[in-house]
Amino acid sequence: MLTKLIERQNLDVDQARDGEEAIHRIEEDGYDVILLDLMMPRVDGFGVLRYMQEHRPEQLRCTIIASAVPESEILRRFDIPVYRIHPKPFDMSRLIADIKECAKTG
């Protein structure tokens, strides 16, 4: 559903089924923005963030976390700055605005 809403904004979207696939895609392709859920199978979002911190730290500056995990828990477990954290349920207009802004600066 989120993919369709973002595509309606005339933005190109690529998605991964799980964290392991996300890591492979991040390694293969350059992305202007990464919208990351923390609750994924195989490798969770924290694992993806740790991978990015070690191998692709420049990608963190345009990473948006969108998750049901409380922001306080995210900040407690991961002290690397990302562009924004959006808690579920999303304010879609704010999320889309952040994606567009991040894409411009990325």
Concise structural overview:
It contains five helices and three strands. With 106 residues, it is α/β, with parallel strands linked by helices.
Describe the structure.
The chain has 106 residues and is of the alpha/beta class. It has a single domain, classed as Response regulator (Rossmann fold, 3-Layer(aba) Sandwich). Helices cover 45% and strands 11% of the residues. It is built from five helices and three strands; from the N terminus they run H-H-E-H-E-H-E-H. Strands 1-2-3 form a three-stranded parallel β-sheet, covered by helices on one side. Helix 2 runs parallel beside helix 3. The radius of gyration is 13 Å and the shape is globular.
Number of domains: 1
Q: How does CATH name the architecture?
A: 3-Layer(aba) Sandwich
- Classified in CATH, the superfamily is Response regulator
Order of helices and strands: HHEHEHEH
DSSP strand tally: 3
Largest sheet: 3 strands, parallel
* Mean pLDDT level: 91
Rg for CA atoms? 13 Å
Strand content: 5-15%
Could you say what the CATH topology is called?
Rossmann fold
Query: Structural class given helices, strands, pairing?
Result: alpha/beta
Strands in their spatial order, largest beta sheet: 1-2-3
Give the low-confidence spans: none
Q: How many H/I helical runs?
A: 5
